[in-house]
Amino acid sequence: MNIVLYISEPWVDWRTIFIIQYVGFWIGYTIPTMLLLLCPLVTWSGHRYVHLPPTGAVLSTALRLFWFAARGKWSLNPARTYKNLTATDFWDNAKPSKQAIRPEWMNFDDQWVDEVKRGFKACGVFCWFPVFCRWTPKSPTLR
Predict the structure, then answer these.
(1) SS3 content of the chain, % helix, strand, coil (to 5)
(2) Does 139 score more than 60 pLDDT?
């Protein structure tokens, strides 16, 4: 088994094929191997990173916060539901400082709600993956 091929497998795409065809076989697999061998060095030089102790799973709390924020925003009209769920004050109404009576599971601050808001916005990128994968041919023979 070619260990270099195994190590550099994630980088093997059109760039590697182009380099192999026009430059040479050895450089086509040396470049991705060198790049992948740099990854442990970045990890081991962790003195620049802030190490925090684990606080447990936050996914369930984040989903509960989403359902708490979405309470009363649902409608049979999809356009109205979309408008309500993408409103600028959607997450602001779920902040603990805005609640007169805080539920017992709400043991976080307003900053954490802002972090959850940024996380949901970042994960919105993944909603386009099915569209991209459906209309982007993987190979000319798959049409």
Answers:
(1) 65, 0, 35
(2) no
